[in-house]
Amino acid sequence: MSQSKPSDIPVQDELFSAGSSYLEHMQELYHSSPESVPAEWAEYFSGLKDVETSAQTGHQAMLARMRPQISAGSTQHYDDITTLSKQGDIEYPSRAIYLIQAYRMHGHMHAELDPLHLNPRPSSPELDLAYYGLSEADLDQMFPTGDLTGDHQMPLGEIVKLLEETYCGHIGPESMHITNSARRHWIQSRLERIRSKADYDTDTRRHIFGRIMHAEEFERFLHTRYVGQKRFSLEGGESLIPMLDAMVQKAGSNGTREIILGMAHRGRLNVLANIMDKSLSDIFSEFEGAQLQESAQGQGDVKYHMGFSSDVQTPGGVVHLSLGFNPSHLEIITPVVLGSVRARQCRRKDKNKTEVMGVLVHGDAAFAGQGVVAESLQLSKLRGFRVGGAIHIVVNNQIGFTVNPFDARSTTYCTDIAKIVQAPILHVNGDDPEACCLAIEVAVEYRNTFHEDIVIDLICYRRHGHNEADSPEVTQPVMYRRIGELPSIEQLYRDRLIRDGVLSAEESDQMIATYRDCLDKVRRATNRPAPSPVNSLQGRWEGFVFDGAEEPDTGVSADVLSTLARKVHRLPAEFSMHAKVEKIYDSRIQMMDDKQPVDWGCGETMAYATLVHEGGWVRLSGEDSGRGTFFHRHAVVYDQKTGKGMVPLQQVENGTLSHFIVVDSMLSEMAVMGYEYGYSVAEPRSLVIWEAQYGDFANVAQVVVDQFIAAGETKWNRMSGLVLWLPHGFEGQGAEHSSARLERYLQLCAENNMQVASPTTPAQLFHLLRRQLMSRARKPLILMAPKSMLRNKLSFSPYADFTTGRFQPVLADKNRQIDLAGVRRLLICSGKVYYDLLAERNKREIMDVGLVRVERLYPFPMDELKEQLQRYAGVVEVVWVQEEPQNQGAWLQVNSLIRQALLENQKIYALTRPASAAPAVGSIKRHKDELEQLMSAAFAENTDGLQG
User: Fold this and answer.
1) CA separation for the pair 305, 717 (Å, rounded)
2) What are 585-634's pLDDT values in tens digits?
3) Which residues is 662 bridged to in the sheet?
4) I need a labelling partner for 686 at 20 to 30 A (CA). Which of 95, 166, 251, 579 fits?
5) Where is the Transketolase-like pyrimidine-binding domain (predicted)?
6) Mean of the pLDDT values across residues 395-422?
7) How much is the pTM?
């Protein structure tokens, strides 16, 4: 849309940047009437005369070839309309149909959408009557209208008027990319019926003015009272406020009970004050740097990242509004909101997906530029992620920080990305609040009718810079010169209502004065309390605690285990199972009858089965999670004759909130992890697990880890029990299939913000998963999950480990033949390398080296490790062994903690692979050589190869 250009850009660059269709249009004008085009255009085209040839095909000739022919075999052109006999022309009646379709396709390009009027509209010959062999002489002729809303036949002049008003006014609809005819026709009919014009009564129009006035006066107040402070002003886009207000009222009237709203910075404070009804006192106190009340938890965040929730009365009842907390990574809130919506719909048993609705407010540059938008859109129709459609509002400032649209995207509109899911798009002029309210009402109706996404492109501008300390005219002089000349939206709408007799100047002045006085009184109040901390332990979170939760006993009785094992591993007789899966299922029943050691797949499945049986809610999603990447889970099984899938764990669901949900996600990490985080925050009584195919695939979602999972509690008091299931272990599979980047998660650990664990037995996994849901605290769990261990019989657990006890942060050496007094070296490790060390010790028949496993790396089990070190009081050499390179893995984070636990006579060493830029080598031979060197150094008689 609008863009400003430096004045010294050559004319040629400016011409070509305008687009080929516009250039051709100007060239045609020049040829027909040189004096009708600006001087710089005339100069440009005159310079082209030397290169023109008689063989050059003009645009008009090309158009003539493309137009519908009069009749078969005819050589007449529509240009020669005066010689055309209407009675003998069978094509003549259908020409209006072509015109109607052209307006539906191209009308938005000619709509009055840009408040700045900086760019000329492109040339669209398809909207010219002459393109179809028509002229003004035909305006009174009756034409069939096809599926155009209205009479079956209308005069051509009336048809053109209807099309102009519907598609070329202050709303420019795009729907022709939608292949579903019902959806496409709904949009067309809905707008054509009213010609894209609102027909609000006097009270509604006065209400809209009040909303606009509050939005603008709030921003003006902040601008003058808190000079230079960042607030990411909404000025220029104030129509967002009456839009959101109209949306809430419309949705509430249609039965919506919750609206989850996500947005970035711009306009957030305005939305908090004028839509969410956040206390003005709190907002002003935040500007003044007041400290939170002493009861506040965590470190807080800047004011334009904060979320809020409130209840709003609508004609259909109370609607609960929830504005998500959003970090500076702008669009990352999109999947988080969608996950939160899905969890609430599931809790409400909202099968029609009408009671809870998601609304996303985007910026134009971010919507077009950030990949998580496309990922989130792709989730919209997937059965494991559908939320019944989201409403997207793009606050289109026509600039991204300092970047013009032609440098910010390759598409015509910033909203074109939404066409990948065939979402209708309504472009609307932000200087027309009534058109904006109409657009959002249509959006709510469409969403509730078709349960699909819809996008509103709110084309406006940014009156100030990216932030209030910026000087935007430095990079956009033309744009900001134009903005400086524009009256505000409040002034424009006020004048419009006065002209229409809806409002008098005196009434509007009084409304403005009253609101300004209110703002000033709140600010000048001397007894304002400190801002209230976010109370996140209410509603669904009541009864939970941030810290200090007691450790639950996670063992399950033998009778329950045996019964559940049969429920989830015996399928109906008519179900034809794959032979390999049937064997695995039969083995699991044997395991739960204490006839075989319990493997990892069985331990995990029984954790889910027991939780769901006890009334729990489990959701597992990720790429190929149903079967499991390593052919170990088989939570979904398929009939080999019919191909029909079945989820056996759902057979133990018990109660209204007892669920087992397993989802094979699309090939996405960032959006899906964000979605599951949002789900976990919205429903604390669920065990939500996101599984990476390989652990380091989570790298693609690092922003979710950094800004939500690791820091969400300390910034916003928002707890999450999300589990990140990250396969980890060095087996010679190369750099990308070895490491889950354990070091990165440990680096993010502080203030008891999350847990990092690497269980080495199925029983440990069983207790860890059960603990995650049974505890009264909710902390994210970063789970270094097994790969080769899945089939390592040395790692399998005895049945008795499942019936009693709980997760153990440290595991002692299980070899009872080792005399602790005779141990010369103690090896401490975490994860799969334990079994490498165990196998090597058994191979060498070494009895003077002890093995201790740290199963939970954060919070670091200091007391439990000290207890083990006390058992080896005579040992001097304590060696931390890891399979990761020295600069990776756990060593750099745990070495100081281990030193604190050591006895006075003990010294710590480290045994690792050499520091490396990549996590692992690509050669299986080199991998084995490195492993052999590690094992040799671990059991050597001296300390060569150890890091002191």
Assistant:
1) 13
2) 999 999 999 999 999 999 999 999 999 999 999 999 999 999 999 999 99
3) 620
4) 251
5) 598-792
6) 92
7) 0.89
